[in-house]
Design a protein that fits this description.
21% strand, Rossmann fold, 238 residues, 4-stranded antiparallel sheet, Arc Repressor Mutant, subunit A, 2 domains, 44% helix, alpha/beta
């Protein structure tokens, strides 16, 4: 049974989400206060955190920042009543995995939750010889898939769950070009038009952590007019 934390100050929305999450056989812990919700993330292990942005005592963006600063990689689905693009980008920048803008349909909420669970389970499954390798080494980048740990030149990188999943997908399929739509489906687990910025934002954040020179990326390359690909070993070593 998956354990979901819902931090939302609107009790009606909380009740509605809890009912449908329980229909997915999830155990639900609901909090209506930002600071108390954050404290729960320190004391308990969750499979998903549903986090509203506008909360009393501590807003959702600050909670998300602190969760990631704690090296907690639990997937975070953010909810916001604001429609401005800036709020969505900020949520992704501080480490959220996905977001929904209110008002949203219960059907879309459930689709997002299922997508997050599918992606988590898919990333844990092993299908090919390359993907079965516990340790993947490309140039200075070392990936420990079991511990979800990434190091560059022996120095550990702090990646969010989505950043790790993106890197693992690329590193297990070097040279393969993925469109943004394919990455949305494979990493996020769903297909929605108009979400290119979600992929772009995560790619940029991942590059900022693994590339020495963002203007001349060595690992995650842009396939102009198509999408992105991970460099092949001979490209990295050249």
């Amino acid at each position: 049974m998956k354990h979901v934390l819902v931090v939302e100050d609107d009790k009606d929305i909380t009740e509605l989400l809890s009912i449908h999450l329980k229909d997915l056989s999830c155990k639900v812990t609901a909090m209506h206060d930002g600071e108390k919700g954050y404290l729960h993330t320190q004391k308990n292990k969750f499979d998903l955190i549903v986090l509203d942005i506008m909360l009393p005592t501590m807003d959702g963006l600050e909670i998300c920042r602190r969760i990631r600063a704690d090296k907690n990689i639990t997937p975070i689905l953010m909810l916001t009543a604001k429609s401005e693009e800036l709020d969505k980008v900020l949520g992704l920048e501080v480490g959220a995995d996905d977001y929904l803008t209110k008002p949203f349909s219960v059907r879309e909420f459930i689709a997002r939750v299922k997508a997050i669970f599918r992606r988590t389970e898919a990333m844990q499954s092993e299908t090919t010889t390359a993907e079965k390798a516990k340790h993947i080494l490309f140039g200075d980048v070392e990936i420990d898939r079991e511990r979800r740990k990434v190091q560059i030149k022996g120095k550990r990188l702090e990646l969010t769950a989505k950043e790790f999943d993106l890197l693992l997908l690329f590193a297990t399929h070097p040279g393969k070009t993925y469109t943004r739509e394919q990455l949305l489906e494979l990493v996020w687990g769903y297909q929605f038009n108009g979400y290119d910025h979600t992929v772009n934002t995560h790619i940029n954040r991942l590059r900022s952590k693994i590339e020495e020179d963002m203007s001349k990326p060595k690992y995650i390359l842009t396939a102009w007019g198509v999408g992105y690909r991970f460099a092949e070993m001979e490209e990295i070593e050249s």
